[in-house]
Amino acid sequence: MLDVRVDKQGLAFLAPPGGGAAGGCATHAFKTRSNEPAYAALPPSNGVQVNQWGKSIQLVEDRDKLAGQSLKINNSAAISTNPDRYKQHGFHFTADNCIACHACEAACSEKNDLPAHISFRSVGYVEGGSYPDFRRVNISMACNHCDDPVCLKGCPTRAYTKFAEYGAVLQDPDICFGCGYCTWVCPYNAPQLDPIKGQVSKCNMCVDRLEVGLKPACVSACLAGALDFGVVETAPANRVQTKLAIPGFPDPEITHPNIRFQQTRELPREMHRTDSMPLTYVKKQEAGRIDYHPQVANQPLERQWNLNKLSSREDPIVIFTLITQAVVGAFLMLFLAPLAGLEVLSFAAHPVVHAALLAGLFALETFALVLSTAHLGKPHRFYRAFYNLRYSPVSREIASIAVFYNAMGLYTLLLAVPGLFSLQTFTGWLAVVAGPVALYAMNRIYRIKARPFWDHWQVLTSFYGSMLTLGSLTVAMVYAAVLTAQGQSFADLLAVAACPMALGLALESWGLIAHARELNRRGGEAAASHLQQRTTFGKTYLLRNIGLALSIASVAALGTVRPDGYTGVAAWAFAAALIVATAFIGRALFYVLVIPTTMPGAFFWRNKGFEDHARETGLARMPQVGVLPDAH
C-alpha cells in the first residue's frame, strides 16, 4: 500500500512505504560517468511559477516537509540536492529538429531492458503536401507525467503514484494485475501491456538519472537536439516556443500533459497519418491560434464482413458483460414480477423451477466472473481490483457486482430455510438495487475521453437494454419449456415478458441511432470509428441492425399472437436465437470499432495495419519485428 506524504492537490504525492523502490520503476541506482557530456545535465528552472494550465509548478508548498527524504532507488539512501527537485518536470520536443533516427527509442529500450514488442518511447509521424513541397512532422512520445494522470485514477490496483519529486508518474508492475484499463484511458500509448508477463509497465522519467542531475536516457541520446527535458515551461536554449500541441498530438485537455512543443516551419493545410487509422489533421485558426484538428480521411464506402476480426482480446469481456446483464435482468424479473401480480413466477407456484433457475443464474454469473478474472494478465491477483474504490470505475464495478452476486446467492440459499423471511426479503431487495447499480458502474468504465466511440450515453442504454431483453428472455424461455412439459399454457406469461423485451430492444435501438448521429457530429476519432463501422465491418454492422429490427418485430408479433404449446416454444426459441446472436455481434463490434485518440504510428511501427499484416504473413514469428504472433 502507499502512504500519503503530502495531500496538497488531492491525488498527487503519494509515497511508497520506507525501504521500497520508487513505485517499483526505478530499479537501478544510476552511477554517473567521469566524462558525462554537458548536454546531458539538467538545466535550472527559468523561475516561472505557474504552468499554462494555471497550476503551480512548485509541487510542495513547504519544501522542508520533504527535505531529507530519499526515493530509495535500489534501496539507496542517497538524496538529490537539486533545488528544483520538487518542481514539475517535463519533456520539450522540437519537431523542426527531429530526423526520426529513433535513437531515443533505442536508448530507452536499452536502459529499461525492454523486449522488442514493448517500447516506452516511440517515434511516429504525419505528412502532407505534394512533390516537391512535401513536409513531414516526426513526433517522439513517451509518458507525459500529466497534471491529471487518468491512468492513476483509472487503475483499480493503485499501481500508479504521482510523486512530489519531479512530478513523475510512476507505475509498479508488481502491483499491477494486467487488466489493461490504464492503456484504454491514456491518450498517448504510455502504459504498455505485456501479454507475455501479464502486466503493464511504462516510462519512469528516469528518476534515477534525475537524482544525480542528468536528463533521461532518451533525451541524452537525441542526435538532433529535438528532445529535451527540464522544469516544465522552461524552454531549452535557442527555443522560442512552449506550445501545448502539434499536428497529430491528442487533445491536451484530457490530461494536461507535461510536454511542450516547438514547431515553427510552415506546414500544409492537411497532414495525414501513414498508419492504418483513417484520420487526417486539418489546420484551423481559432482565437488567434492555429491548431490542427483530426478529421476523417476520405475513403471509398466499401462494405465488408471481416467476421474474423470481430475476435479481440476483449472476447471474455463480451461474454462477461452480456451474461451479467442477463443475470441481473432475470433476477429482477423473478423477484419483482410476483410482487406485481405475476404469480406464475413466484416461489410458491413453482418452487423447484424457481429455486433451480436462481441457482442456474448464480452458476452462470460465477462462470462470467471466472471468465473476467481469467482475462487478467495475473488472475491470481484479482482481489486487488478493490484497491481504488475512491477513483477507479473498475473497482466500483467489481465491488457493486460482488454485492449483487453475494446478495443473490444468499437469497437463493434462504429460499430453503423457513422462518427467515425478513432476511430473505432484505437480501432480495439488496440484489434488486445492487444489480442496476453494478450495470451503471460498468457503463462508467467506458466513458473515456481518449476513446470517443465509447464516450456516449448509448453505452448505458445498451447495457440496460440488454438487462431488460436478455433477462426477461431467459426467465420466459425456462418457464415456457417447463409449463409446456407440464401441459400448461405459457401464452399469458410470454405476452407479459414481451413488454420488457421490446422495451430493452427499443432502448438499445434508440441509443444506437443517437450514437451514430453523434459520432458524425463530433468528427475526429469518433467519426473515424463510425466510418470503420460502415466500411471495414459494414456488412456485419448492417447484419446487426437488421437483426435488431427483426428482433423487435418478432417480439412484438409473438407477444400479440400469443402462440402456445410446442409450436409456441419453437417460435420463441427462434426469436431467442436471433436476439442472442444479434447481442453478441453488437457487443463484439463495440470493442473492435474503437479508434483511440492515440499518437500516429509510422509505416510499420505502432501501426495496427502492419501488425495484422505481420501476423498474416508470418513476420510476427521474428521477434525483432516487435509484433507478437498472437493478437490476443
Give the SSE layout:
Elements: E1 3-4, E2 14-15, E3 89-94, H1 103-112, E4 122-130, E5 133-141, H2 150-154, E6 160-162, E7 169-171, H3 181-185, E8 192-194, E9 199-201, H4 207-210, H5 217-221, E10 227-231, E11 259-262, E12 270-273, E13 279-286, E14 289-296, H6 315-339, H7 351-374, H8 393-414, H9 421-445, H10 458-485, H11 491-522, H12 524-534, H13 538-561, H14 565-592, H15 608-617
Parallel strand pairs: 3-11
Antiparallel strand pairs: 1-2, 3-10, 4-5, 4-12, 6-7, 8-9, 12-13, 13-14
Helix pairs in contact: 6-7, 6-9, 6-10, 6-14, 7-8, 8-9, 9-10, 10-11, 10-14, 11-12, 11-13, 13-14
Strand order of the largest sheet: 5-4-12-13-14
| SS class | alpha+beta
Give Rg in angstroms: 28 Å
Please give the number of β-strands.
14
**Shape summary:** elongated
Helix content: 40-55%
- Could you name the ranges where pLDDT drops below 50 across 5 or more consecutive residues? 1-28
Calculate the terminal CA-CA distance, rounded to whole Å: 31 Å
The SSE string, one letter per element, is EEEHEEHEEHEEHHEEEEEHHHHHHHHHH
Question: What's the average pLDDT?
Answer: 89
**What is the beta-strand fraction?**
5-15%
Please summarize the sheet with the most strands: 5 strands, antiparallel
Number of helices: 15
